[in-house]
From TrEMBL:
This is Protein LURP-one-related 15. Belongs to the LOR family. Gene3D superfamilies: LURP1-related (2.40.160.200). Pfam families: LOR. InterPro entries: LOR (IPR007612), LOR_sf (IPR038595), Tubby-like_C (IPR025659).
Length: 206
């Protein structure tokens, strides 16, 4: 059985997607979701200086069951797909633009079928038994106040918090900040937040 990440020290990088996205210092990200566009649910992710790091896009006029995380040049980093007919609203994340089992990096599912708070259990691809999750997300998505933990431990690997500005409300943009702790794959954290947003939007449409 795969050991949960929380049982090992986080002094060394935890590259879920790539070591390229693991920094030895905290990384602050600004995530802006465009609210009033025809491709609602698409994101732009920047650093604190406004430099674009990632974009998140989904096919226009398609079901909300597929998203692609792109680098600044438009190259696909990972593809996020919702697993159809899954009781716990499970999403699977694959390397690049693949959706093949051999390219599976991790999956995430709601901790329970009915829940008021944002709670996700995250399993890396090699954790096939899924007896213990590798990461856990807890908090309130409505308030954009979520914390991501390593496994079942109390070790925090990332935190998100809302940032309200008059300009963002006027422009129809939903902006929130994420602090990713040292040595944690920040592309992985962005992918988790996209999944949280998709689950929340799916629930609000029901």
């Amino acid at each position: 059985m795969a050991q949960p990440i929380g049982s090992t020290p986080l002094a060394s990088p935890v590259p879920v997607i790539s070591p390229h996205f693991c920094a030895p210092y905290p990384v602050d990200l600004a995530i802006v979701r465009k609210v009033l566009t025809i491709t609602d649910g698409n994101f732009v992710v920047t650093d604190v200086n406004g430099n674009v790091l990632f974009k998140v896009k989904g096919p226009v006029f398609s079901m909300h069951d597929r998203k692609v995380l792109l680098d600044v040049s438009g190259n696909p980093i990972v593809t996020l797909r919702q697993k159809i007919m899954s009781a716990h609203n499970r999403w699977q994340v694959f390397r690049g633009d693949s959706s093949e089992a051999k390219d599976l990096l991790f999956s995430a599912k709601q901790s329970s079928i009915i829940q008021l708070k944002a709670k996700l259990d995250v399993f890396l691809a090699n954790n096939t038994a899924e007896e213990v999750c590798d990461f856990k997300v807890k908090g309130s998505w409505l308030e954009r106040s979520c914390v991501i933990y390593a496994g079942e431990s109390s070790t925090v690997v990332a935190e998100m918090h809302k940032k309200h500005t008059v300009q963002s409300v006027f422009l129809g943009k939903d902006k929130f900040m994420v602090t990713v702790h040292p040595n944690i794959d920040y592309a992985f954290i962005v992918a988790l937040i996209v999944i949280l947003d998709e689950i929340n939007r799916g629930d609000s449409n029901n």
